[in-house]
Amino acid sequence: MTEGMKLNTKIEIQSHGRYGSVIYQKNSNTIELYWEMSGSKKYAILLAPLDLRKWQDENEIPINEQLEILADLRCWLKRENIKTDIDLPEEIELENKVCIHSGCNETRIKNSAYCLRHYNESLLKL
Ligand SMILES: [Zn+2]
Predict the structure, then answer these.
(1) Closest of 63, 77, 64 to residue 33, by C-alpha
(2) Distance separating alpha carbons of residues 117 and 119, to the nearest angstrom
(3) What are the boundaries of each domain within the chain?
(4) 28-47 confidence digits (pLDDT tens)
């Protein structure tokens, strides 16, 4: 189940032609993420890998909160009808193979070498 975006969260996109930024705000924290226009028809803009390691004020963002930000961004981008390379795969079918992430025993998602958690982490700069 996907949780809706919380009221304390605000996202906006700025464009400077072929590139721009997405500004994510949660309470008093802000982070600016850069995008560039995609060359392929599959995506409108490219955002990966997302650098969600620190807020603008240099405070570190724990990994679980980074994954929440990723989920919020996806939810917002979907509503805005903007296709990006951080979208979830269209079908999340599980494959009968184990995730390649070291020590992980979860099942892979379709067309990926990773389980969902590690697929999400693969979109982040760690
Ligand atoms: Zn995994």
Answers:
(1) 77
(2) 5
(3) 1-87, 91-126
(4) 999 999 999 999 999 999 99
